[in-house]
Specification:
Elements (H helix, E strand, L loop, with lengths): L1 H12 L17 H14 L4 E5 L5 H9 L3 E6 L2 H8 L10 E5 L12 E4 L10 H11 L4 E7 L2 H13 L2 E14 L9 E13 L6
Parallel strand pairs: 1-2, 1-4, 2-3, 4-5
Antiparallel strand pairs: 5-7, 6-7
The structure holds S-adenosyl-L-homocysteine.
Amino acid sequence: MFVLKLKIILEMYVPHYEKPKRRLEQYRTPPEVAIEIAQLMDKHCSGSIVVDQGSGTGMISYALAFVTKHYIIGLEVDSDAVEAAHHSRLWSIIGNLDFVEADVNYPPIRRVDCIAQNPPFGIHRRGIDKIFLMRALDYNPDFIVSLHHYNSKSVKVLSSTCLERGYKPFLVKRIYFPIQAIYDTHRSKIYYIQVFILACGRYNEETR
Ligand code: SAH
């Protein structure tokens, strides 16, 4: 029941991108996916600070703030998206969340316990999703949950990135992610791409 209500609340009150920027591959995560990411974080993150890299208008950050007791920091490079996240009606009722305008390559904070993210899928800028994963690993966090475009190569590349850094990757599930026609290059109103939730934790820790 909580999940159903939360899904409706997030759908209603987390803004869509008003001025989406194609080069930044801005797509709002469906609320049910954001909730699933938050539930994984709630179960596996034993620390207290969770960063949402590329937080956009705040979908994953707000889901994390509702579902977990952690302190959430959304990092986002686009000032319009940060402004939209702040303007959500949820902002005034949520106390364990901040949004910071920042490039993930130049993080404004150093101490982070866990990372949740839906990075750009890397369709427009190839390899950007791997860069996000590497930046997440740079924090040496306890646990990472990350959403990626699915194909056999991406699973291999991203899993080896985790393994090389001493993290154990786990493919949680594959999902169809709706892509709304928000850019002029889109031909159909909505189409779906396959994505997967990747979780990884340090080798000596359980990831599931
Ligand atoms: N997390 C949001 C948005 C996902 S789309 C949601 O789940 O709804 C990916 C986001 O990453 C976009 O908002 C984009 O602006 C942001 N982004 C792209 N490059 C970035 C960078 N270098 N640093 C920070 N954010 C970035």
